[in-house]
Write a structure and sequence with these properties.
The structure is a single chain. With about 290 residues, the chain is of the alpha+beta class. The chain starts with 5 loop residues before the first strand and ends with a helix. The protein has 9 helices and 6 strands; from the N terminus they run βββαββααβαααααα. Strands 1-2-4-3 form a 4-stranded mixed sheet. Strands 5-6 form a two-stranded antiparallel ribbon. Strand 3, helix 1 and strand 4 (about 60-70) form a beta-alpha-beta unit.
Amino acid sequence: MNSMTGFGAATAPLGGSTIRVEISGVNRKQTEIAVALPRAWASLETAIRDTVAAAVSRGRVNVTLSLQQVPGAAGALTLNRDKLAALTATLAEAEKALGQKVDTSLDSLMRLGIISEETESDLPLESIQAAAEPAVREALAAFITLRAQEGANMKRDLLARIATLRQFREQLMARASGVAARHKEVLLKRLADSGLPLPLDDERIIKEIALFADKCDVSEEMTRLESHLNQFEKICDKAEPVGRTLDFLCQEIFRELNTTGSKANDAELAQLVVNAKTELEKIREQVQNIE
């Protein structure tokens, strides 16, 4: 079981700079992969997207590649020889006219475009790709590891809550087993209080109790609920993505609880159903984050 949320990062040297890769994920019903990288590296997007898509099956994954300057290191400098030749003659003429030396510092030459610092657009694409691919895989591995760790924590929480639902099921069954008998007592007391006492073997009383007992019977719902809880626990142990399946099971569990509540005709039984639904809602919130 994996969570859909996670984070992974990695770096790789590239000349006098460093490529940094960051991968993060959030929950989504479908798979969405967003890749952000310098415009000059656009041709790498498809390969990066395919690499990530092979490792995830659900959720929104954001992949960011950037070029960062190494502290204390200068980027490669290039010299525009044609501009320099033209400038040399112009400078000599200007110095002669002014009678003083003209500023030819590195800063002024860079502003004039005679000397420029290498940028990501100047780097060979083959070099960028060679450095980016292993960095993407390293960041992806860290991302997957964190998702698995979070998934393990979520699994423990889910199984504990399923155990709580089992306890509610036992309480529901115990309470439901006495609903018909309590209805019988109430019915006979009302008849007696109304001055209409009837013998217990009266056909009308027997028919009324039988119809009520059939209407309030939740044994089928409790059997299906037990089956859903068993399936939920088994699916949690699977290695493949299980988020959609668990989400479907949550809907089925809710249906059984809802039907039980509609049949309740008993205040305490109805309250137990409400408590069970509250616990189920916590499970559903967790399931929304599972791949």
